[in-house]
Here is the input.
Amino acid sequence: MNHCSARFWVSILAVCILLSASIGVWIYLKNYFQNSSSNAFHPFIGRWFGHARELIFYPDGHTTYTGRVFRWCDVNPAPCDAMEGDGGLKEILQFSHGGNTVMYGTIVSGTDDYGPAFDTDGRYNPQGKLLLKVGSSISLVLKPEDKLAISDGWVLCGPQTPRADPACSSA
Here is the structure.
């Protein structure tokens, strides 16, 4: 192999390496941006909390929704809250579509829940109406001050919600 031929093959090898590295960087950046800021779920991703409830929204739209149901197990059927341990609400949700301020999904599995002990008009309703039935639809709406309204009537708080806000109590 002569000197010119070796130089030619080294140049070809350098171009191939540079091209491979460029393609690798492009794939990495494409995946990074698809999984972060350009992800339609981006404004919802993270931990949302409130009085005895927590929702964790993952980048793929998978969500866990857990907490108390405010009915004691010693006098009520499941779902119910035990005196010790976790609350009776354990839902797995999958969100599939929406926009910047609203997401729509389905309750994939869980305990079913009869909703808050108080109706939206403030009337006490210990059994409530069935709001979180496996297989049914559920939606989330972003609200001012980093809050998240859930179609079952609960409002949860994000990390930017003022700590003095009563909805953000973790009790």
